[in-house]
Amino acid sequence: MKALYSLVGLLLILLVGISTTIKTEIIIDEKDSVADVMRKLGKSDDSKYPNKNVKGGVSAEAGRLLIQEGFAPKEKGGKTKKQSKHFVCTSCHNIVKEDIDLASPDPQERLIYSEEQGIPFLQGTTLYGAVNRETFYNGDYEKKYGALVEPARNDIREAIKLCAVECAQGRELDDWELESILAYLWTIDLKMGDLLLNGEEFDLVESALNTGEDQEDALAIVESKFAKGAEAHFVYPPEDRKKGYDYVGNPENGKMIYDNSCLHCHKRQRYSYFDLDNSKLSFKYLKGKANGYAPHSLYQVIRWGVPTKSGKKSYMPQYTKEKMSDQMVEDLRAYIEKRAE
What we know:
By secondary structure, this protein is mainly alpha-helical. The chain has helices at 2-21, 34-40, 60-68, 107-117, 141-145, 149-152, 156-167, 175-185, 199-211, 215-223, 251-266, 280-289, 298-304, 326-340. Among the domains are: 46-192, Cytochrome Bc1 Complex, Chain D, domain 2 (Orthogonal Bundle), CATH 1.10.760; 251-340, Cytochrome Bc1 Complex, Chain D, domain 2 (Orthogonal Bundle), CATH 1.10.760.
């Protein structure tokens, strides 16, 4: 009997030893967080994660409400003062994926994708995947906001603060509100299914996670599949506004711009005092203003925006080159002129 017990004990020891040496195979799923995969490959930035110890009730749901509604419930009852009287984050930013190829965003492809997905075609870059970016307020935004851009360029918290006060023309965020917004943004971070990995690249990343080999190569592949920041370059209106840009406009493309961009803000004065609709009157008015320099000239507002005025803090931000090409501006004009006939 003792021999039997000894044999059983030996078998148990062997089984435990074997189980401790067997590793569970890592299989990448399309819903896996890109940041988590990058962390396993040796790169992470813990400073981007929300500090949930801040007093006030940090939560992703509070962050979602602040972004979409402009206010959130307080920890001890009631709700916050509205962050801005003029805008919410989603006035200018989507909260879903808006580009098919995240490494090479293209405004025309974004417009088509927006039309297919039923999402607005907006001036600001989507907040989807914002936590995966490394730089903010890139390119020409320094011309608009000056030194305010410096702390925001490489710090997502400072970028959120700048957007809340300068872009949204609102109040400063409390610490718990800022951390809640960050918590929400982590619920819409990039997923592995968003990256255009081919089969060979996918296998290499998965192999690196399982074997620990070629991790630098795998990390480089993952990082090459999405932009680390959104480029932004301001564009001048055409010198001769009667002639316009040197492109033949496509009214069908212009319709998508009008429906998904112009009407997003101006239909029933959603974010603007200037009301637009699909009536002939609206199109005739826009056609008549196109050649001039008035605030309602499509060249003027698309390329320069409408600045804040005394007693009126709401404004229209401009479309950068990366958000609307010169060709697309002419497409919009062609559609307006066609509808004005």
